[in-house]
Task: structure prediction
Amino acid sequence: MNVFNSCGTVEAVKGVAMKIVIPGGTGHLGRVLGRALAEQGNEVVVLTRREARPEPGTRHVRWDGRGPGPWTAEVDGSDVVLNLAGRSVNCRYTEANLREMLNSRVDSARVVGGAIARAARPPRVWLQMSTATIYAHTFAAPNDETTGVIGGDEPDVPAYWSTSVDIAKAWEREQRLAATPETRKVALRTAMVMSPEPGGALAMLLRLTRLGLGGPVAGGGQYMSWIHEDDLIDAIGFLIGHEELSGPVNLAAPEPLPYRDFLRALRSAAGVPVGLPATKWMAELGAFVLRSDTELLLKSRRVIPGRLREAGFEFRYPEWPAAAEDLVRRSREALRPVG
Result:
């Protein structure tokens, strides 16, 4: 049996752990969540398409993310499936990359749903990664799960931004339509995760900040929705334990802020006094060099965690300045030589 502490963390007791299966768990978030869930005493099985060193306490099983196979035996009898599979959005939004983003998300959700539907002992909860990008580009009222406006037809934004929303809607639809009546389903509309783990958004932003490039982009009025790594981990445990929660849930800190203020707080935490501003065309050039896309910088994501807060979840880091201080400190400690 398992219990949940006041922050929502999954804690095994009496030596009996949950079995948690994480499809696509070798990426940035998979490493963070897999390691944390294993440290809490749970059996963590990562489904992966590539060779990678398992995080301590986790076990890897091969799958292709597109069809059934021996991996489905891991789902049968598990307690939780946490599906993180999908091509990274940190790339150029070419037609081929967008197609792969769509296919990797929809295909993996479909085969996971099929494995759960065929299981003799299906998991009691299926947590499916989604994205806060599903909401409209806005500078006005924040988007929660009840009153939030789904994007796709906003005026005065690049037409291809609607493709990201279409991908998110198809991703969630695949989970929603899966015939898994014995398994509760939650769609994790996740904001940008801030973590000291190498390879994530924070590492890129800190690198730019330390180069003096951490100033506002295109004016900096667009909103940044974010969540601290520790709150993401706690929220996953909270959702596993709260059986009344199903459907879309926003995983975002309750205080999104304009990008200029976000970067100002990050510069302060990093001890960098100046950040050069960037115009829109400079952002385009930088994104091209970094093989990324400006939607990640220019879309105004003002998303708040309505359902988590209503259910009683307490954030450790509700505001960005304190979160930035903690994350910069931990990033520095990770770089210090051992011994």
In short: The CA atoms of residues 52 and 195 lie 20 Å apart. DSSP finds eleven helices and 13 strands in the chain.
